[in-house]
Design a protein that fits this description.
The chain is 39% helix and 17% strand. It is of the alpha/beta class. The strands form three sheets. It has a seven-stranded mixed beta sheet. The longest helix has 34 residues, at 3-36.
Length: 526
Amino acid sequence: MTRRARAALVAAYAVVFWLLLPWGLWRLARVLDRAAGWTARPWWGGAAVLVAGLALAAWAMTELWRGGGGLPVSALPPPRFTRRGPYALVRHPIYLGFTVALLGAGLAGGSPALSCVVAPLFVPAWVGYARLEERGLERRFGEAYRRYRRRVGLLPRANLYPVAQLVQAFGFLPVRVHGREHVPRRGPAVIVWNHACYLDPAYVGVTTPRYVHHLATAEAYRGGALAWLVSHFCNVPVRRYRQDPTACRELVRLLAEGELVGIAPEGERSVLGDYQGARPDVAAILARLPVPVVPVGVSGNYDCGPRWADALRRRPVAIRVGPPLRFDPATPPERTIDTGIRALLATDPQPVCLDGLAPERIARVLWRCPRCGDEPTWHAAALHCGACGARFSGTPEGALRDEAGAAHSLAALGRAVREWPETAPLAARVTGWREAAMFGPIRPLAPLGAGELRADREALGFGELRIAYAAIRTTSTERADTLQIATRDAMWQFRFAAGSAFRFQGAVDRWRGAEFSRRRSRAPAA
């Protein structure tokens, strides 16, 4: 097609859709007004609705020109597929903006027929036309458009990410950010950060106006209000207890579409406030991606919501963004990530102020005296051991001071607790569940009922269920009260009525390691 023919076609589309069509709809509305005997009652607020609709249409056409490289002309479709700007909210923002403008024109011009009859009836008309357009878009862009259609509605859907960004913009979260310039304004990239609080995705979102697609635990998608919340955020569910090719494919697709992805390489939130280090399998994947990997250090997030406390508090948070990491083939990728994140933290481990937190919750991480190994009952006034006389009191600075005046971090005391040997068996009252299928869609867990969970040096037992340590592939914790055990073919969850899920996890991992050592020692020499 020649340039003159293209110009004539664009002009024809502009005349038909932006002059003749609005004029025809207005004339139709006036005829209906007279036939129904409706009198004109202009409303000044209709002008704002009219302007909003025209602004949405103009924004969409501008983004179509910049991102798609073309104009909204069906016979001359843009050569590139754009999904940014208003196209991230709705698939056909130009048609939607036109409809809103019709509604506003009817309100401002005092035409009940235009606002109450013509504008609503115009919706199914453009929806049908849009469906025809989408067939051509699917033929041109294939799977990319099909995925876009699944994620973005024909009409606006609930999306909590812009709401969260608006809340942050008004200072609800007291966050200071340094190094925003290191987050790419366009193009694919991965942000990695230290994970110590439920609010970390919101903190990371403060670093950039772009959408950040976070990898989130699959347990949040099992059902209920939490599943609704996370599904309306920019999240990608991942089964952390096994290799998850579905999540990996979604990660690659998002990056191929030029999106920004957020990953906590530790896998779980820190229990004691110290950076736990990147998982080697996660680091290996990130090192192979041909996109920038930007490290972020979040300081103060542990004091906002220590994992063991089941509480969220408004505390000042400092975020530092570093330049993209450079992976050296001679250096393990997890070491590169760890070095980058630790360099951005104010302190590691992080302090936590105990004021306002339920004192009995601290027994989840300090289930014995770090000095003598006895199992005391902690009180609100102080952490006091009746066996050896040790006493630890919280300070406003977030440390724990002993009876001699020496300051200790909670992480140091927690590590001392974990070094004491466990006496088998361990037992606790729990409620159990099992995953119906390890693969496929994420569904609610099948309940197993309440009972006693027992851990000895050979296996984990729950009623008639017995899981040998040799079969366990991963152990993890959800929230602060749930132990997660996975084998090659199954996954179980046990929620504790009392006691510490972290204690059980540490004991199982220790005895599981001892079982592996015994098996290797029994193996015949090569």
